[in-house]
Specification:
The chain has about 200 residues and is mainly alpha-helical. The chain folds into 2 domains: about 50 residues, Orthogonal Bundle (Arc Repressor Mutant, subunit A); about 120 residues. It contains 9 helices and no strands. Helix 3 packs across helix 4 and helix 5 packs antiparallel against helix 6. This is TetR family transcriptional regulator. Keywords: DNA-binding.
Length: about 200
């Protein structure tokens, strides 16, 4: 069986060590602001202050607040991609495909809980919700697992349907407005996967 190669989002030429360190410092500061005060608190000034650099450094690196938010989302997507492509089972290779699919959903729910506002903002950006590279990677990954699990049918459409309950807007609504716990969402995800895969 041939393995599908998943494209990594935002692949860019390698950065100099100091540039990569500064980028990481700024993204860590932005992520900390999101977790402490919410996405609205993430301004170029606030990130510069949190990172201990000048505001100009943030603008030179990301161009705008939108650029910063996209970079923050890209950063977290890369970490998740690394985990499901190269990390340990059950999320990474080596586990049963159904168990990997369950682990993927759990990991996605966990990232929404931490940085859901950033994800929701990205999902609601005109023209990017369904065409973002990160979504394409997710669809390709789920299609691969469905095929490996022996599921029949239109794999691409089934993958899109399976990913719908993991969208940040819905997950945040379920947690914040409906009072559902992440444990309940994770259990429902596992139940859905097992029904679809008949496992």
């Amino acid at each position: 069986m041939t393995r599908l190669l998943l494209p990594q989002i935002g692949v860019e030429p390698p950065e100099r060590c100091d540039a990569a360190r500064n980028r990481r410092l700024l993204l860590d500061a932005a992520a900390l602001l999101v977790s402490e005060r919410g996405v609205d608190a993430v301004t170029m000034d606030a990130v510069a202050c949190k990172a201990g650099v000048g505001k100009g450094t943030v603008f030179r690196r990301f161009g705008s607040r939108s650029g910063l938010m996209l970079a923050l989302l890209d950063h977290s997507e890369r970490e998740l991609q690394q985990a499901f492509m190269f990390g340990p089972p059950p999320l990474g290779p080596g586990a049963d495909p159904v168990e990997r699919l369950i682990a993927y959903g759990r990991a996605r729910i966990a990232t929404v809980e931490v940085e859901g506002e950033v994800r929701r903002a990205a999902e609601n950006s005109p023209g990017t919700r369904f065409s973002a590279p990160a979504r394409a990677v997710s669809v390709t990954h789920v299609v691969s697992l469905l095929r490996e699990a022996g599921v029949e049918g239109d794999h691409e459409l089934l993958a899109c349907s399976l990913l719908a309950p993991l969208e940040a807007t819905l997950v945040l609504h379920e947690i914040r407005d409906l009072g559902m716990s992440t444990e309940r969402l994770e259990a429902a995800w596992e139940d859905l996967v097992r029904r679809v895969t008949r496992a």
